[in-house]
């Protein structure tokens, strides 16, 4: 190039050469634009993948947290039912014991009544012969036994509560 910016003719390319260089440059520019578009798409895809990863990580954390909470709730539920079952077993044992006690008291009252009938019959026979205790005295004894039995049953009911 000289001072005026002109290239001497002996080094200057021909018009065909210039057209080929211009076409080659245009081809390179189109190729660069395609690569640039591809790079922009890849960058957008990468940004979308990063967002998806963050969303999946967040959801995974949420699910881990939820599953941990569900496991804790399940464990609490199991513990509650075990305690409830143990409590019911204790109550059933206590109820059985009280039921047996009430049954024994009822049997002893029945035995007392039977004995009272035998004693009354014997005393009546003795009374006829010896003027022993009266029939009304024996009824009072029986009434006292029934009242005592009722008091024991009421005491058991109060203790059950």
From TrEMBL:
TM segment ranges: 100-119
Claim: Coiled coil is one of the keywords in the record: yes
Coiled-coil intervals: 18-49
Tagged with keyword Transmembrane helix: yes
UniProt keyword list: Coiled coil, Membrane, Transmembrane, Transmembrane helix
Protein name: Uncharacterized protein
Organism: Pristionchus fissidentatus
